[in-house]
Amino acid sequence: MGSAALLCLLLATLPCLLEGRVVPAAEEGFAECNEFFYQGSPPQGFGDPSNAKICQKHNGDKHFATLYSTKDKIPVYSAFAYREAAAASAGGDWLIEPQLDDTGSSRDEGTSTADTSNPIENLGTNQALEGDYATSDYQPGPLFHQAPNALTNSVPLTKTFLDKWAADVDQLVNERLLPHCGNGAFLHLIVGAVPSDVKINYKVSVPGAVWLAACCSDPEAWSMGIIKRTADADNIEDVSVEELEKKLLGGAKLFSSQCGGGAGHPKQKEDSEALTDAEPQAKASGPFFRFIQFLVCIVYEIVKSLLCLVWFLVKQICNLVFGRVYWIWTAVTTYMFALCKVLFNIPCDVLRVFGNVICGLVQILNNICSVVCLILRIPMRFLSDMASFPYYTLCAIPNVGLDILGGIWGVFALGFTAVFGAFGGSFSVASFAGSSFFQRFVGQSEGYEA
After folding, report:
1. Do residues 162 and 91 both lie within one domain?
2. Which of 161, 139, 140, 157 lies closest to 149 in space, CA to CA?
3. Which of 229, 255, 276 is the last residue of a domain?
4. Do 234 and 104 fall within a single domain?
5. Which of 196, 206, 324, 436 has the maximum number of C-beta atoms within 10 A of its C-beta?
6. Is residue 386 part of a domain?
7. Are residue 48 and residue 169 in the same domain, yes or no?
8. Which of 335, 350, 377 is the last residue of a domain?
9. One domain, residues 260 and 344
10. 161, 166, 159: which is closest to 145 by C-alpha?
11. What region does 79 belong to: left with phi over 0, alpha with psi -120 to 50, or beta?
């Protein structure tokens, strides 16, 4: 069976059937899930009252234990005991733990977020939900990438960081843990996260770092750890479990009795032993050899002191030379800058003086004109009228001539009209008189005849 199949840590489950029981505070440790810890002893120093203990099970079989922070809505750590198992898919709906939000719930198994047949009271109060990730750049990722899709065992990570973390863990397990721990038969893993101040949806804390601590209990107990910070996805830090506890966990203890007293990885021990074996197996002894050693030490110290002195002198000389060069350079640049500024200001000053002279002459002329006008007391309006009199006189001649001609023509026309009017009136009178006479004469003649 390939090493990929050996990496499963009791996680060969169907996610939709994963069960989780919230362990009451009255029960010791993680109850039936204590077996996932080295010597059955859970880590010490995680006494925050907002932490909830969860024993993850499936079909009656226990798989791993989780300490979940209801304050940060992410797991503090999850513990696994390695066993050989077949790999399984981690797909499916995301699961939540009903008893975290409803302590009175009788449902002691994980429930899919898509299951609405039996609503949970206060859902999302004490745990993260899938909807909390909807509007962010993060996605829920299990602390161990082969774990099922349980939100109580997942933290918000970017896709890039999650892929690199999974590759780092795979490489660690395959190359450094399994070959030195009986192919995982005695291997205990604790994987955790440290929250940062960044939150998504003002609720779920984004981890500032994720970590893994491994403890192998056979043949001789040893341990090691790794740290990967979310701000530096390309690097991973190898540390001892004791260093991990001091750097990230505030001195909490992950393994009972430090997993063999804090012994490091066998490979590191082999390298240390190889360096020790490389030293002379038997050191020479005797007064002569000690005298030679004494001379060598004296010569070494003298040479070291001379080199330090030479290095000090070189530094002082360099500092002096470069200091003077820098001072000269600063002085030259300052002088050139000031000179260029003065040369540039000369034309501006000349133009400014010329402008002031022109303005002064104009002001003098203005004052002279004002004095002359004041002495002569000649109104400007009068001078303007005198200057414009010839123009207006010449322009008025044609109009006056036309007006005179119009008057003469009007007189002739009036006389002509009067003459003809008189003749017409006389004719009318004569006609009227003749007509009246004729009628009277004719009327009398007819009377006589009758």
Report:
1. yes
2. 140
3. 276
4. yes
5. 206
6. no
7. yes
8. 377
9. no
10. 166
11. beta
Q: In b/e form, how buried is each residue of 16-39, taking b as 16+ CB within 10 angstroms?
A: bebbbbbbeeeeebbeebbebbbe
- Same domain for 317 and 422? no
pLDDT digits (tens, 9 = 90+) for 101-127: 777 665 555 556 556 456 677 788 888
Residue 19 — very low, low, confident or very high, per pLDDT cuts 50/70/90? low
CB neighbours of residue 166 within 10 Å: 15
Task: Give residue 87's pLDDT band: very low, low, confident or very high (50, 70, 90).
Answer: very low
pLDDT for residue 6: 36
* Stronger pLDDT, 92 or 142, i.e. the higher one: 142
* Number of domains, the chain: 3
Contact 265, 241 (CB under 8 A): no
* Region 427-439 average pLDDT: 78
What are 24-39's pLDDT values in tens digits?
877 888 888 888 898 8
Cα separation, 270 vs 286, whole angstroms: 32
- List, for residues 388-427, the tens digit of each pLDDT value: 777 777 777 877 778 888 888 888 888 778 877 777 777 7
Which phi and psi (to 5°) does residue 149 adopt? -80, 65
